[in-house]
Design brief:
3-stranded antiparallel beta sheet, 8 strands, 17% strand, alpha/beta, 5-stranded parallel beta sheet, globular
């Protein structure tokens, strides 16, 4: 699982999400934006994932993951900005470049991509709705937020783990062959 952590306050919960995924047998690699690291310590993510956090792309082309492809990409928390960038094909950071590659893998049936939107309720606009519909239409799974106190909060770890497991199973289910009439 690639856990893509973006710069919302809910990023502080990312180590808990990583640990919950690992308890179910997942190998988790965190990719974090600079903004995310304002809310969660890099060391906490490394401890939770038991591997280095990717914050910059190197010659290893971590965002492509060709040598060890990910089965599931989970964006949690998914900020308004990252949702908008992905919906419009903008890949200008290590996280959005990873998502561009992830969506390509997803479209070939090789991976699942999930977004868990989190933000203040006033940011839930028609623009956000349009961007989420765009991502859903290309095959991404949108994990509904937990709404409380006027905010779209990160769902609990169990909900995220269950969504990842369901998405993983769906990528492993053979698709029926196209009919030729």
């Amino acid at each position: 699982v690639a856990l893509l952590v973006t710069g919302g306050f809910a990023a502080f919960k990312a180590p808990l999400v990583a640990r919950a995924l690992r308890r179910q047998g997942a190998v988790v690699t965190a990719f974090a934006t600079t903004e995310a690291l304002r809310y969660v310590a890099r060391e906490a993510l490394e401890w939770a994932c038991t591997r280095p956090v990717v914050v910059d792309l190197s010659a290893d082309a971590e965002h492509l993951s060709d040598s060890a492809p990910f089965d599931v990409y989970l964006v949690a928390p998914a900020t308004y900005s990252v949702i908008g960038k992905c919906a419009h094909g903008i890949a200008d950071t290590p996280v959005t470049a990873t998502l561009a590659s992830a969506i390509g893998r997803m479209e070939r049936g090789q991976a699942a991509v999930l977004f868990a939107p989190t933000m203040h309720g006033s940011m839930h606009t028609s623009i956000l709705e349009s961007n989420l519909r765009t991502l859903h239409a290309c095959g991404c799974t949108i994990v509904p937020p937990r709404d409380e106190y006027g905010k779209h909060n990160l769902p609990d770890e169990r909900t995220l783990v269950d969504a990842c497991a369901a998405a993983f199973r769906a990528t492993r289910t053979p698709r029926p062959a196209a009919r030729r009439d």
